């Protein structure tokens, strides 16, 4: 059975923009409501020969991994602590406006070139099989010389494939620079949409079967959930296509020619995702039309039956009404066979009308 899609789970969390009212640009104010878990910083520091993987005990240890000789990937789970964000920003010389955007978990996906580093905001989605829903989360990437920083709202992501490739010592990922690592993370985030779209496609197929076989009011809610999910996924995927295209055309020296070639592949995946989402939107709209047509046809069938029954009983009601009048001189009332004769006439009228309706294929 297809997994039910809950569209509210892919919506960004409610914004609390009023907290920044009156504050200067770059003020670090957490806007996320998910700030119960402590901040966790994990590090992959590697070159073509060696790999170090560890969890930092303190944000101050980030300074140990600012070196252009090796590539360091620092993943920060939890973007609710302004002090931690400010400390990370100081170690890697990140602009305060970038830190401000990272602390806002409902930003539109975008790409910005700050000269010394590249900044991306993306939205990753993945199926949460435990809660039977689509999980959605903003992830921010900062790509600089010798380092990549990834900021997430909470633990759990779609980047395990990149971690496994680093652990297994894949030559290309371990030997190329931070820009290629940034590409690998982007590729994993974009590809995560395919698994979600597969589940959504299964849901659409299931709904299509029910709409054709046994349409009901419950199916309408499922169709609306699919439409809302497709709209929300499109809202996240469309700007990501734009940012990948902008990054590919960026002239920053941090991006090598090799990485630009691979970014084209990510761009193609993003375009394919948007095409699939658009198809799903059209299919859900068509399913709604099929449902409405089925309901209308069923209603028409009921109305035809009621109209036929009413038409048959109209002359019978007339005859009964005539002989129900209280006139003294009604010759038929004195006839011995009057009652059965009237019944016979009524039966013949009904039978004749039924035969006529069937010849005309009205019933």
Detail the topology: elements first, then pairings:
Blueprint: E1 40-46, E2 51-55, E3 71-77, H1 82-92, H2 96-103, E4 110-113, E5 118-128, E6 133-144, E7 147-152, H3 160-167, H4 171-175, H5 178-213, H6 217-248, H7 257-322, H8 338-359
Helix pairs in contact: 5-6, 5-7, 6-7, 7-8
Task: Characterise the protein shown here.
This protein has 363 residues and is α+β, with helices and mostly antiparallel strands. The protein folds into two domains: 27-293, CorA soluble domain-like (Beta Polymerase, domain 2), CATH 3.30.460.20; 304-359, Magnesium transport protein CorA, transmembrane region (Methane Monooxygenase Hydroxylase, Chain G, domain 1), CATH 1.20.58. It has eight helices and seven strands; from the N terminus they run βββααββββαααααα. It has helices spanning 82-92, 96-103, 160-167, 171-175, 178-213, 217-248, 257-322, 338-359; strands at 40-46, 51-55, 71-77, 110-113, 118-128, 133-144, 147-152. Strands 2-1-3-7-6-5-4 form a seven-stranded mixed sheet, covered by helices on one side. β5 (118-128) and β6 (133-144) form a beta hairpin. α7 (257-322) runs antiparallel to α8. The longest helix has 66 residues, at 257-322. The radius of gyration is 34 Å and the shape is rod-shaped. The two termini are 38 Å apart.
């Amino acid at each position: 059975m297809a997994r039910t899609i809950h569209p509210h789970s892919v919506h960004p969390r409610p914004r609390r923009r009023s907290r920044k009212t009156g504050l200067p640009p770059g003020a670090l104010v957490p806007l996320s409501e998910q700030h119960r878990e402590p901040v966790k910083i994990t590090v992959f520091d590697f070159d073509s020969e060696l790999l170090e993987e560890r969890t930092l005990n303190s944000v101050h240890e980030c300074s140990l991994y600012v070196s252009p000789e090796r590539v360091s990937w620092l993943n920060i789970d939890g973007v609710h602590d302004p002090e931690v964000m400010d400390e990370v920003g100081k170690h890697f010389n990140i602009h305060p406006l970038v830190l401000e955007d990272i602390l806002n978990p409902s930003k539109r996906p975008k790409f910005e070139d700050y000269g010394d580093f590249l900044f991306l905001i993306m939205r990753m989605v993945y199926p949460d099989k435990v809660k039977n829903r689509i999980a959605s989360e903003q992830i921010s990437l900062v790509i600089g010389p010798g380092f990549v920083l990834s900021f997430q709202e909470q633990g759990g992501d779609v980047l395990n494939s990149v971690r496994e490739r680093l652990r297994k010592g894949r030559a290309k990922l371990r030997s190329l620079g931070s820009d290629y690592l940034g590409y690998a993370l982007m590729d994993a985030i974009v590809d995560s949409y395919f698994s979600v779209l597969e589940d959504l496609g299964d849901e659409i197929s299931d709904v299509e079967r029910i709409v054709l076989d046994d349409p009901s009011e419950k199916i309408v809610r499922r169709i609306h959930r699919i439409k809302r999910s497709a709209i929300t996924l499109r809202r996240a995927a469309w700007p990501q296509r734009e940012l990948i295209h902008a990054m590919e055309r960026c002239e920053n020296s941090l991006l090598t020619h090799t990485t630009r070639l691979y970014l084209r592949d990510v761009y193609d995946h993003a375009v394919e995702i948007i095409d699939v989402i658009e198809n799903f939107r059209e299919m859900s709209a068509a399913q709604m039309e099929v449902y409405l047509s089925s309901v209308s046809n069923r209603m028409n069938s009921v109305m035809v039956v009621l109209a036929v029954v009413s038409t048959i009983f109209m002359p019978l009601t007339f005859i009964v009404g005539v002989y129900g009048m209280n006139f003294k001189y009604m010759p038929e009332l004195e006839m011995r066979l009057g009652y059965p004769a009237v019944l016979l006439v009524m039966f013949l009228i009904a039978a004749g009308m039924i035969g006529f309706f069937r010849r005309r294929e009205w019933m």
